[in-house]
Structures are given as C-alpha cells and as structure tokens.
Sequence to fold (369 residues):
Amino acid sequence: MKFVRRPARGAFFFLAAAWAAIVLAAVVVVWLMLFILFLPFLAFSELLGWPRKHSQITNEADTLNSESAVTRAISRTAQNGELIFDRRADVSKLFGCNTRSVEYRWGLFRERLQEIKEKAKEPRALDFGAGSLRDSFALIQQGFEVTSMDLDAQIMQRYFDSYEWSSEASPPALFTGSIDRLVELVGQNYFHLAISFDVIEHLDRPEHYLQNLRPLLRDDGYLFAIVPNRRSIYERYFKHSLKKQRQRGLKWTPGVPHLQFRSPEEWDQFIEANGFEVVEHDMAIGTLVNDFWHGGLALPIYVYVTPVLQVLRAKIGLRFDPTLFERAVAPAWLMKRIDVFDNLLKQRLRRQFGWNIIVARRKTSPATE
Fold:
C-alpha cells in the first residue's frame, strides 16, 4: 500500500505544483496589466499629493495607541501558542482596522460614543463576540463598564491575562454562557451599547441573537455592527468553500467560517426585521484594493501557490516565507495609493465595498414582539 500511495501522492503533488506555477504566471501577467492601467492615476495622484493628504486624515482619526494594549501579549502568545482571530496589535474596530495592507479609519461610531457618554453617567457596553478583547479594551479606555461575551472561556481568559488593564477602571466582566442566560443575569434595559464586529456572519441563527440582544439594550441603546458584503470576491470564495465542506460532510470549528452572506441592502433588512432601526450605514474596504488586487491576485496565490510552497518548505527543509508571493502582489505602498482611488470612486462603487459599518438603534415597538 505504501508503494502505491507514495507514487500517487508524488503525482498529485507534481500536478498541484504545475498548476501553482501556471496560476503564479497568470497572476504576474494580470498584475502587470493592472499596474499599467493604473499607472497614469498613480502618477497624477503623486503630483497632487493625494496619498500624503489621505495619510494625514487617517492618522488624525487614529486616536488610540494599540501598543498599550499588548504590552505582554507577544511573549505570552509565544509561550502558549497562537490564538485565533488575534487583533490585539491592531487598532480597535470602533475606529478602524489595518487590513489589506491599508490603514482604514472611520468615524461613524465616534459621535455615537460621545452621545452615549453625555447621556449616561456610567455607560455600560456589551462586546458580543469579543474575540481578542481589543474592542473591550478600547471601550474601557472610553469610560464604559464592559461585559465581554464569547464562546470559549479558556481562550477569553488567555486574552484577558495578556493585557495591562488600567488600575483606574474595572476590567471587563467575561461571560461565556448563552445570551438567554445573560438576559436573566443582568435583566432588560441594561446596556447603553452593544457592539458586534465580524461576528453575526459566523452565527448559525443570527436572528435568535439579535432578537435577544434587543431587550438587553435600553430604549435609546445602540447596536454597532460590522459585517461583510456578500458581493466581494472573498465572500464569494468563503461561500463556495462552505458549500464544498457541506457536500463532503466535513465539520468545522464553531464560530470560525462565515455562515451568513448578505448584501448591504439585505443586512439592513435583516437588522430591521429583528428589532432594530438602522440609523446610519457606511461601507469600508474599497473594491479596487479588496477585489482587484487582494481578491483577484492574492487570493488565487493563497489557494493554489502557498500550499505548494508550504509542502516544499516542510519536505526540503529550506527556510523561506511561503506567503511571500501573497504579500508581494499587494504591497502596502501600492495599496495605500489604490485606496485613494477607491475613496474617489466610493459613491459609484460603495455597493461593492467589502465591509458594512452599521449603527442601529433599538426599536421601541418592533414587529417581533
């Protein structure tokens, strides 16, 4: 059997390597075509100084220094192994995100945070799907009393222990029970704010959670949500991958894959149908950066080329970064300039942008009650 398996594996790897080479060559050709296409704009924008002006706006919007949140995080992660969805070294998604080789910043939530703090002497927030506690940390910096809710108590505690929590404010209360249980514990009309960043799309029954989040909020309580746009190439890839997993009967780790795929209009309808009123809706992660370069070029390399390089590194023992080509096709210096173009075309292309940034308010008389 070993004699049969090894030649079969060798043949399969040879075919995979040949296909990886074809994909890589095709990506290089397409990259050159795109670069030549955008070259006149890149030169024009440099002459007008648009990238520098855009960087100044971005930096001014970044009011929180993430380094203070991770004083002990790197050493602890190295000792205990990598943690999933680790965003401790990133800016809080209340204010932006560093992704796709671009420093994205938004101000949609900032005014609402100030509004809540002006109305409530002791504002309370629920970080639903708290993950690495990065946003819980930011809310505490903003003066909120925070309850951080997620699935795994052990992972939450590891994240919790990695932060330098301020002695001037209470650290977040960690909660890993059901949302129904949380309603029983704190009662209705308790939180002034609930945030759910990159969480709802991972839920099997998101309507159940939204309907139970609503009574936890005060009458004037807000929900801040960030969810992906199903129209982006990445979401189309995730949906295709999920379909293949289901066809093969494969299991996945709860909370990891995307299970919900909606357009901006469909997300608004979904949120409205489950006890909330959408107050404001913006889009982030421009389609040129997200779809043209990362989705159209880096994603094929991630799917077909990187796995082959990982096998080669393991078999041959050479030290090299198998993600080298992924990063090379979308360098930060280029994405920074393409992002300027994304912003100029946002009114026309916003429906294709990668992320929905949503502010919703609890309905006082929802149809769901």
About this structure: The longest strand covers residues 217-228.
